[in-house]
């Protein structure tokens, strides 16, 4: 009988310790700033040049997300600026598996628009970062033109990038 009590008390102590550790891990405030207390510098974007648009085509063709798109994917990405105080359209691009064409196509699955100033900082590895930064500044919008269920099934190969594609 004494062994049962010792076993029960030992089990209770272990459970209390584990509960305390779990509560400590989950309810300890986390620092919002993850770079050692130094605030992240704001990225300065320059107006897009013709060279930025040409570079965009090469960069997007090499991008992992574009390479992983399904064969029948069709995504429209349109760029705009406010250089003259009003919205002006810079260009329309059709993104398909491993390719980008400067063409307007209204028969697409996803329509995205973004301020062209973000092209100046775009490179082959930061496509999602740039889109998320544009979203954060209110310079990006997307519209799903097929049903959410169809999109999730069709674009299952790129679900880890769904935030970058407006899914």
Describe what you observe in this structure.
The chain has about 170 residues and is α+β, with helices and mostly antiparallel strands. It folds into two domains: about 1-30; about 50-165, 2-Layer Sandwich (Nonspecific Lipid-transfer Protein, Chain A), CATH 3.30.1050.10. Helices cover about 40% and strands about 20% of the residues. The chain contains six helices and five strands. The protein has a five-stranded mixed sheet with strand order 3-2-1-4-5, with helices on one face. The longest helix is centred in the N-terminal third of the chain and has 26 residues, at about 1-25. The chain is elongated. Mean pLDDT is about 85; it is low at about 30-35.
- For the largest beta sheet, what order do the strands appear in spatially? 3-2-1-4-5
The tally of helices reads 6
What CATH architecture of the largest domain would you give?
2-Layer Sandwich
What's the rounded overall pLDDT mean?
A: 83
Q: Segments where pLDDT lies below 50 for 5+ residues? A: 28-35
**Bulk shape:** elongated
Main structural class? alpha+beta
